[in-house]
Amino acid sequence: MKVKLLASAAAVTIAAIAPAAAQSAAQDTGQAPPSDAPAQKVEEIDPAAGAQDLLVTATRRAERIQDVPISVSAFQQEELTEKGIVGFEGIARETPGVVLNRPTQNFNNFTARGIATNGYNANLQSSVAVYIDELPVSTIGNTTVVDPNLFDVERVEFLRGPQGTLFGSGSLSGAMRILTKSPDLNDFDTSALVDFGLTGSDSFRQRYNLMVNVPVVDDKLAVRAVGFYRHEEGYLDNVGTGVRNSNTLVDWGGRLVTLWKPTDRLSIKLLGSYEDSDPKDSSLTSPSLGREKRVSDQPDRFTGKQTIANATIDYEFDFARLTSSSTYSRFNQRFFLDLAGTFPPGGFAGAPIAFGLDAAARDRVFVQETRLVSALDGPFQFTAGGFYLRRRRDTDFLYRSNPAFLAARGFTGLPDQYYQKQYTYQINEELAGFGELTYRFSPRFWLTGGVRYGRISAQGFTKEGGYLATAPAFANLNYLQAALAGLRGPNGAFLPVNFTQFTPYQPVTGVKATGQKPQWKASASFKPSETLTTYATFSTGFRAPIVNAFAGRASVVNQNDIIIPDGASSDDLKSYEIGAKGRWLDGRVTINVAAYRIDWSNIQAQANRVSDSVQFATNIGAAVSKGFEVEMGVVPATDVFLGFNVAYNDAKITELTAAEAAISGAVPGHRLSAPRLQGALYTSYGFDLGNGAKATAAVNAQYVGSYNSSFPNTPGNPNLRLSTFGETDEYVNVNASLGVRKGRWTGQLYVENAFDDHSVVYIHPEAFLVSRFGTLRPRTVGVRLGYGI
User: Fold this and answer.
1) The domain containing residue 102 runs over which residues?
2) Strands 128-132 and 107-112
3) What domain count does the chain have?
4) C-alpha closest to that of 488 among 502, 500, 474, 475
5) Is the separation of the CB atoms in 221 and 194 below 8 Å?
6) Global pTM?
7) 766 in a domain, yes or no?
């Protein structure tokens, strides 16, 4: 039935606008200048000749991407639609030197230029900052990060290399910016995109997107509304819960943007958005069970509900633009997972034990940024501003058994399946001033310097209440101790254990971790000709200090194990980059190259207590990452485009003490968690169908080399090889499409993962998960129908 439905949708698309569609390889220069920077004059290029200049705001001002002295990849809405990019995964595929570590939907960690100790990043701030407009959404610790819908965006920019001066903490190795579209003050407009796909033989995918733009008062007031809904049936069977296609995703939401421009100088934009992303189970697999199989006693859930409210005020002075952006965000999440893999198969007592964590967290974030960006015609250009962030995260840690296991063991007395409940919260604050100054000695040579200085703090608290249940009749054994002991009587039957002692947690105020140090950037740019820009850049990056939620807590399994330390201080990173950006033959050939060396010290790393798998953050030694990246686009003939990118990276631990090795499992010379070689090839061919219709056929192939999942040894027991250590598979993922554009209508037939590659692209470093492997989504065929894209 689902195959027939998909075939019917494809037939409707073909009948509506013919076989296939895609955009021209040329970028559209009819876009309005980005909203967060003053308009700049850009050299006009004949649209028939080749690629157009693309404006980006990576430096907080609108500049040609060819003139920005850092490595930037940028994607406009037309390109996202053509390539079927709806979230983080597609952006990573198209960006050299970047890998998305994705255990499951809503659990996303980018790695850029090899700066990662593993792909999980538990208890650590992400090394790549992710922004939705002015709001940083990448966070700290065991947390979900909603994979935001990318329909009706102005642009997505991925900045590689540390961006500490303009984007603050978390931009240790890069920053990704999702810039939503502002309302059009003059024209009524609508756009829509519908996507039907079939994964495997019976998993149906539905995606619906709609935008409406309404000018209320010409040149003064307009409203833009966006809505979206996704229902994507899963493709994994959970043999523990008995649910087929368990990892189904339901994601919906929208945003409403109002733009008021009472004068030529003043504009006020109000934005409200909401997204509810609800995967019904994890996408991690257990290959030993067979293809597309996983196991857990209850569904592993990583859900998120994110609400964003923003007010941005822009005022144009004669010499500069003043921008004030105020954002308030609420993010509610669930982090539910089966921890049964923590203990050896069968448990210490010869039988499996039920052990899981249901954690619920609530983030409340306020961000204020005010900046002044020059619009001078002279040699000086400047950006100056201030930034403030306050985040409070409340987390409820509920450790569980399950009712069937409790009944089988004769465990009684618990009010429900939870034997331990602890309620905590954490407050993070960042206050900083930043600025960049550029001086142009001539149109061919200019220098830029930047600095950010501020104070970052983090403090954890334990709330009063909750409990740890124990059994007084058995020397106050807690649930884990009793379950692992497998208490039995003389006849071999389990002894009844009654948990009647409920010890509440007392309020605890944790140590306040603070950090303050300047972040620097300096670059020199030289244009030997109008078609070539070269640059050399030095920059620094940092992450906020980390406080461990369970600082000072002993193991409930083994009192002699490590006491959880207070936390980890900021790491220190210095980056040296040289690059060149060239454009020849009227834009028919573009080549961007960059080479870099990164010195990373006082590395924030994840460690684990052996007895109970409690995670905590600490600092260890140093590493060096070296590599290069190449991006190239060629238009050999009209309507023919060839795109290519490749990245090489060599990132290794270079300094490590014996104590640091023992607590982290790292070893000197160990290669960090990033592929040595990766690249992508994109080619498209357009041709006329007559009657105003134009078709395009396209193929996109991505290659990613294998890389380490984590440090090789067991934290806390460095003489033992980590049982979960491994290398991801080397793989090639091929997507293809065939589509048509006629007027404002587009239609496209597509196939993703054309060769149904089942490579392991992620390995979870923690033993507590039985299903620990992430694989490519199976072959998916489908059809997209768009209007006004």
Assistant:
1) 2-463+507-787
2) unpaired
3) 1
4) 474
5) no
6) 0.88
7) yes
